[in-house]
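Q: What residues go here?
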């Protein structure tokens, strides 16, 4: 989902209760068949990270609770967590527990990321890439989304509607990314999921700040909400073709609106400079007329 800035999820604890039913569950960790090694624990946590169940910044339950859920001894659990730390998948914060490390890969190096916003073609190419890959993600989501996936999408859309209704611009932009992340999760394709998350990392790190100008265009917030609802409805209906089309149409709209927002900004900048220039030259002209 999203992803939205990783810092939003820093310290998010894994719930002991199911997110939808409110009843006690074994949560996301399964009992480990008894063995003398920590390999099974390592493998299960690795899979949860790879599948996107555990996300960057998620805090694991405490050692006692985790060993209870896995049904392994605490020494075996410690060995497993140490292996995962060594592999760069977990980090331990002094007094703050064990968290999932920042495992979202950087698509570009920092110098290239700083170049992108200064070159219009890079932004255009980014959106072209997103249009295709998000179309595929939405199509797969319509084919593969489970009941729990759809319940999560429903909750995200409800929050988006509320943010729109109350005019909470910051929340609306964050939920926008979260929604696209969630659609990527519904596709149930590991490579697609992490590719999308890497793409959204560019948004969370402010590489495409001009996208925020889109929200200021007349009618844009309403149009974007309608488009998100169209993607959501197609995924829920299990209509792959409609989902793909809705996702691609959405990015096409964003691309067109970003270009319009930039032109509008240029118009305003030129008009402001023109006004300043003419106000500056008017006063000397008046003085010359008086002196003449």
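A:
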């Amino acid at each position: 989902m999203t992803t939205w800035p990783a810092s939003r999820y820093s310290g998010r604890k894994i719930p002991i209760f199911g997110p939808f039913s409110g009843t006690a569950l074994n949560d996301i960790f399964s009992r480990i068949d008894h063995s003398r090694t920590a390999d099974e624990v390592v493998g299960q946590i690795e899979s949860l990270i790879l599948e996107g169940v555990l996300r960057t910044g998620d805090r694991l339950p405490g050692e006692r609770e985790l060993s209870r859920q896995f049904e392994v001894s605490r020494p075996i659990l410690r060995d497993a967590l140490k292996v995962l730390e060594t592999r760069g998948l977990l980090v331990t914060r002094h007094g703050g527990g064990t968290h999932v490390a920042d495992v979202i890969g950087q698509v570009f190096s920092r110098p290239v990321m700083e170049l992108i916003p200064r070159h219009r073609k890079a932004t255009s190419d980014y959106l072209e890439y997103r249009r295709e890959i998000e179309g595929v993600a939405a199509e797969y989501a319509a084919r593969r989304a489970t009941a729990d996936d759809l319940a999560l999408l429903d909750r995200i859309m409800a929050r988006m509607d509320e943010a729109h209704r109350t005019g909470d611009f910051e929340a609306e932009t964050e939920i926008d990314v979260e929604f696209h992340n969630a659609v990527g999760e519904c596709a149930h394709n590991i490579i697609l999921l992490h590719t999308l998350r890497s793409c959204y990392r560019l948004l969370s790190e402010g590489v495409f700040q001009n996208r925020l100008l889109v929200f200021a265009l007349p009618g844009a917030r309403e149009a974007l909400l309608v488009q998100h609802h169209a993607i959501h409805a197609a995924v829920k209906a299990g209509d792959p073709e409609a989902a793909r089309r809705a996702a691609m149409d959405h990015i096409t709209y964003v691309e067109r609106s970003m270009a319009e927002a930039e032109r509008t900004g240029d118009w305003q900048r030129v008009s402001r400079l023109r006004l300043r220039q003419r106000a500056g030259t008017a006063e000397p002209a008046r003085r010359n007329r008086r002196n003449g």
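A: Context that may help when evaluating the design: Strands lie at 90-93, 97-100. Residues 167 and 221 are 10 Å apart (CA to CA).
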